[in-house]
Amino acid sequence: MNNLKEFYYPENIAEAQKLLRDESVKKAIIAGGTSVALLNTGSVEGMVDITRMGLNYIKQDGGFVKIGATAVVEELARSPITKNLANGILAKASSEIASRPLRNMITMGGNIVQLRIWSDLPVVLLALDGQIKVQGDEERTIPADDFFREQPLKTLAHFDIVKEVVLPKTPETSGAEFIKLSKTKGDYAIMSLACYLEFEEKTCTLARIALSSVTPLPRRCKKAEKVLEGKQLTPELIAEAAAVTREKTKTISNIWGSAEYKSVVLENLVKKSLLSCADKAGIQI
Ligand SMILES: Cc1cc2nc3c(=O)[nH]c(=O)nc-3n(C[C@H](O)[C@H](O)[C@H](O)COP(=O)(O)OP(=O)(O)OC[C@H]3O[C@@H](n4cnc5c(N)ncnc54)[C@H](O)[C@@H]3O)c2cc1C
Predict the structure, then answer these.
(1) Do 228 and 203 meet the contact criterion of CB atoms below 8 Å apart?
(2) What tens digit of pLDDT does each residue of 144-183 get?
(3) How remote is the CA of residue 83 from the centroid of ligand 1, in Å?
(4) Which residue's CA lies nearest to atom 1 of ligand 1?
(5) 58-168 CATH
(6) I want to staple 194 with a disulfide (CB 3.0 to 4.6 A). Which of 36, 127, 162, 167 is the partner?
(7) Ligand 1 in contact with 30 (CB < 6 A)?
(8) Which residue's alpha carbon is at the smallest distance from atom 38 of ligand 1?
(9) Cβ(68) to ligand 1 under 6 A?
(10) Predicted TM-score (pTM) of this structure
(11) Does residue 105's CB lie within 6 angstroms of at least one atom of ligand 1?
(12) What is the DSSP string of 253-264?
């Protein structure tokens, strides 16, 4: 950030976009600033701070929970709204990120736009079928599945602003779980995973299994989800879904663990997570 000369504090999205579109001075968006500070922004001369635009809300709206892009993860960890959504997995994932001072800076938008191998929130959005609202030339709504297919920082235009994350409320007959494996609490993830199951009577009608930190980008394992859908769950079926997740996931090695280690642990954590989802939905296995 050697060339940084200006900070801008727009009061709304239109003002922020006007600043970003004016390329006479090269500018970048800053939210919590915990990641952008590490980027190679050599030619950036201006930072557009988007934290004063009224996007720091967490609210219920009909059948949805809406989270403004600049809501910080400490608020996501504490909010009664997130604690009551889908067995509180978004609150749980948020509470396990870094330290409290950092959680008071890190925003929902920053966490999902610049994906790091350790980013924890994307798996929750994938498991809960989140939608991401982006303001570009026009407003568009992108399903989490599509949003995380590539590194969002590369696919978004320089004037695109993530406005909001929308999560549907989940029915009583569902269960969700988030598990982060790390060496110590608040440390970077060796792996994070989020699972969601929905039932009709005792039949599993919908399954989502999302993983992070084991592959370059967070992803769902749809082949494993198909093993569960339309069936009554048994220990054998859950073991099969976990084995399929392992088989279909090309794990990567990094300083937190080898690909082989992650592969074995992944299978076990998927099993544990699915059993927990069923239990939370009141399904006896
Ligand atoms: C020591 C440390 C430990 C951490 N541990 C974890 C962890 O365990 N798990 C975890 O998930 N995270 C962790 N993080 C946080 C993570 O690495 C990122 O720093 C964080 O998610 C970035 O969020 P931010 O709000 O600070 O974004 P910023 O740094 O402000 O922005 C990041 C990027 O996203 C862009 N951007 C931000 N908001 C928007 C928006 N609304 N629309 C468009 N573009 C936008 C910016 O232009 C920038 O390029 C840790 C961070 C630190 C410093």
Answers:
(1) no
(2) 999 999 999 999 999 999 999 999 999 999 999 999 999 9
(3) 22
(4) 98
(5) 3.30.465.10
(6) 127
(7) yes
(8) 110
(9) no
(10) 0.97
(11) yes
(12) -BTTB-HHHHHH
| Segments making up each domain of the chain, as ranges | 6-49, 58-168, 174-280
Please check whether residue 217 is in contact with residue 150, taking contact to mean a CB–CB distance below 8 angstroms: yes
For ligand 1, say whether the CB of 96 is within 6 Å of any of its atoms: no
Given a contact cutoff of 8 angstroms between Cβ atoms, the answer to whether 69 and 52 are in contact is: no
CA atoms in the 13 A half-sphere facing the CB of 177: 20
CATH number, domain 174-280: 3.30.390.50
Residue 149: CB atoms within 10 Å: 14
> 131 CB less than 6 Å from ligand 1?
no
